[in-house]
Automatic annotation (TrEMBL):
Coiled coil: 260-294
Source organism (scientific name): Halapricum desulfuricans
Ranges where the PAS domain occurs: 148-221
Entry keyword set: Chromophore, Coiled coil, Flavoprotein, FMN, Kinase, Phosphoprotein, Transcription, Transcription regulation, Transferase
Residues the record lists as 4-aspartylphosphate modifications: D59
SUPFAM superfamilies: CheY-like, GAF domain-like, PYP-like sensor domain (PAS domain)
NCBIfam families hit by this protein: sensory_box
Protein name (record): Light- and oxygen-sensing transcriptionregulator
Domain Response regulatory: 9-124
Amino acid sequence: MTAASETRRLLRVGETPRSGPVDADSLERAIEGAVVVETDFPAALDRVTNGDVDGAVVDHRESGFDGIAFLRAVRQDRPSFPVVLVPATDDGNVARRAVEENVTAYVPASGDDTLELVAQKVKQHVGARSSERGRVRMPISDRTTEEEQRLKERAMDEAPVGMTIADATLPDEPLIYVNDAFERITGYSKQETVGVNCRFLQGPDTEIEKTHEIRDALDAGESVSVEMRNYHKDGSEFWNELKITPIRDDEGEITNFVAFQQDVTERKEAELQLERERERLQRLLDRINGLIGDVTEIVVTADSTDEVYARSAERIEADEAISRAWIGEYDPGARVVRTRAGGDGEIDLTADDAGPLAAAIDEQSLVRLDDAPADPVGCRDEETGVVIPLTYRRTTYGVLAVYSRAQPFDEEETTVLQALGRSIGAAVNDLLSKQTVTTDTVIEIGVELHDETPLTRLARALGERAVHENTLIRHDGDLLLLFEVDGETDAVVDAAESIPEVIGVTVLADEDDPMVEVAVEQPSFVGTLSEFGAQITTVEFDANAVELRFGVATEQNGRAIVDELEDSYETVELVAYHESDQPAQTRQGFRAAVEDELTARQLTALQKAYVSGFFEWPRRSDGDQLAASMDVVPSTFYQHLRAAEKKLLTAFFEGDA
């Protein structure tokens, strides 16, 4: 790059500007310019106010670097300085605040293309600077009066901005001097301009209020600066940045007005375009916020997947920019999409004309639709459209197809539509998860995790000194493991406590049939299964593997759980998979209903009493030991246990927990 070549000098501001989706090094390559990094708010602001940089890319985090505050500070001194804001998350409020502070461009950090979009905005709004900037002009040496006068005249003639001087002592203040730049800017020659008032540059669209502002300032003997529409000699319009200053004689009387003119049409049109873009973005935000709020309320309050599909499609279709919308449910086994709201029929994804729909599902990404009459999801006459997968993590439950006759969906709209797709997918996952405890048919799955886990390490440490008898999963996800001890309990306690993930060991019985309870912090598989609404039935383990048995409501959730486990563990072996018909009141449903009625203490007391052999005869543990394991006095333990027993028996005999 030569010394006179042009480049951009960009400021990258945030807590960690060298990492994340818009890291400084990647941004520098993308814009083919220079990027300087600041993490300190005052230092970054000094860079802007001192003119060290041509634009800024600024992070915003609600609990970190406040990009909105930085934007507000910049706007106090540099109202037109280009600022691209990149928020980590956004619920619509951040965007509104950014628009109110006159953000130049707004790019949420919500996808793999964030860096590309930021670079695009930088190239669009941040101008290049010449490396010749910064050259310092040498001072004028001692000269004769005549030489100094000639130098000043030459400097005025060759100045890069238009210069005029008017005689304030003559009627109508005629021009007595114009420089060469004024001729180039306006197209008028010196012969045509000297001797007349400079209002000849005005025309039909010149702002009358700007002319009044100029006249009022000159009448008051004050300087004035305005940007106004003026006209070239050929009649074409341009934006003139005009600055006028009065010149006074030794007595303080105004003798002349010196004016500077600069053609700022390119910058002004860019500002007007930016203002139009801000207004468009504000209208879009108002529209989108209403859409997001309504769909969010739908997915939160709906009682079934049918209701989610129907009400969501109806609300999306009611948007002023959308001509129609429909939602389809994906059946991965049959490889088809069955329309559930706003459409009619079944689409075979293996057909040649179902390519966009299949791509959206397989790639879990938005796909733009084209005008293909044979395509079952294609656009109709004068329509544009997109299809969005309804996903939760790696599971796709369906698709949302949206069409418009106004104009193609822009990046802000597609970002919102993708977020709506994820919201609907999460709602469907939640509703299907709840079905596991209410449905008549449950898919029962068994897997073995052949991997090094806290449970396999615990089994190896205990060896043959203890036999695993039962496993309980607490509300917080931690495991309570009950072991029957063969020998002294002290050795078992020491071995268990040597495992880092063990968070507590309690001796429940220490005489004829010793028993030890070991609490283990939540394994990753518990979170995975609970996230997809699976009901864990058994957890068995030895020194080599962990075997899980669980039930789910749908094949999709079962497949998603296995996929998630395969990501977390080296070897996952499927050992059982079948549907099980349940009675009208499922075992899981009964248990869930009872647990809803029990307090956490009541449930813990009941579980501990059951697994420790308290209800057997002779008892394998007594109330004093169980009370100590719960860190309560025996009377309190029995109070919790009796209350739990009453609620359990009420549910059993009266059918209403």
